[in-house]
Design goal:
Layout: E1 2-8, H1 14-26, H2 28-31, E2 38-46, E3 49-58, E4 61-69, H3 72-99, H4 104-107, E5 133-135, H5 137-146, E6 151-156, E7 162-167, E8 173-176
Parallel strand pairs: 1-2, 5-6
Antiparallel strand pairs: 2-3, 3-4, 6-7, 7-8
Length: 178
């Protein structure tokens, strides 16, 4: 952990440094002894107000806390408490994100080295438009027999309802009516 201190209108004493660093030693379990943790402590005095501000940079995140009190040590202790809450929340968020990620057994290939490809999604391809002519089922069968298409859509001349006539694999025709 790196600590940087700035005193505005006040000299930063070794006792204040020791106080902040002791509090951060108690938070070591949250930061896992991370050497990239950078902490900037700003101490400010305005009349009878003591302001303690702490800015921590950890894992590309910035945690900030500021507290005002009549006692500088109390202001810094409360600011460290706020940093602790923010760090716990951030750490929980990071852990939850890792726990909700897909299992490596499902993402990695099987031990035999063969990777199974995911099935391609079903696509709907627009086809050309068909003229729906009024005709009987027998007329539609004669027209379908003479065309290379596998089906024909027609409007039944008797009932005025749509129908689909299609070629079956056994050589016969199938009729779909609503």
């Amino acid at each position: 952990m790196k600590f940087e201190y700035t005193g505005r209108h006040v000299e930063v004493s070794p006792a204040i440094r020791r106080h902040v660093e002791d509090h951060f030693k108690k938070l070591d379990h949250i930061f896992n002894g991370d050497s990239t943790l950078s902490t900037h402590v700003i101490i400010d005095v305005e009349k009878n107000r003591q302001i303690g501000e702490i800015i921590c940079t950890w894992r590309e995140h910035t945690l900030t806390a500021k507290d005002t009190n009549a006692d500088m040590y109390m202001a810094l202790s409360r600011a460290v408490g706020k940093i602790e809450k923010q760090a716990l929340k951030l750490k929980k968020k990071i852990i939850d994100r890792k726990h909700n990620s897909p299992k490596t057994s499902s993402a990695a290939p099987s031990p035999d080295g063969h990777v199974k490809a995911a099935p391609a999604p079903v696509r709907i391809i627009n086809a050309s438009r068909y003229n729906v002519k009024p005709m009987t089922a027998e007329e539609a069968a004669m027209e379908l027999a003479s065309s290379p298409d596998n089906f024909i859509v027609f409007r039944d001349a008797d009932t005025n309802r749509l129908g689909v006539l299609y070629k079956r694999q056994d050589g016969n025709f199938g009729l779909i009516e609503p």
